[in-house]
Amino acid sequence: QIKYLVRVRGEPVACLSFGGAAWKVEPRDRWIGWVxxxxxxxxxxxxxxxxxxxxPWVRVKNLASRLLALAAxxxxxxxxxxxxxxxxxxxxxVHSERHSGTCYRAANWILVGETKxxxxxxxxxxxxxxxxxxxxxxxxxxxxxxxxGSGSPSxxxxx
Length: 159
Known about the structure:
By secondary structure, the chain is an alpha+beta fold. The chain is built from 5 helices and 6 strands. The model has no long low-confidence stretch (mean pLDDT 89).
């Protein structure tokens, strides 16, 4: 996991956290087009934006989407330094009853669907959690091909 604390002139303005991807997410898996053995082999190249908070008293136009873009640019190298490989895709889940995901949309993340509301610990199909919007951000142009095993690394999406 990687955590970033964003400061402006020494004052904290935001924090972001990235960790391992969710094991199964139907909209993400459908977008990638992979089968279970491909997912098992390549899931490590998907990173989850687990937390994102712009501090509530900070009011700067376009700050949230700008910080997402900066984090996406920096994350692959930082992840490589810590874990020895680069991620190809970032995922995140937005509680759509509370938030619209505007900053993700503005930062060119792709809305691919909605979770079923089951969560990772649901073994009985109870679906008692809120459904969440699933957003993806490819870190390389060939993310889908790489994740399905049919491509080779290409130029990053973010220069």
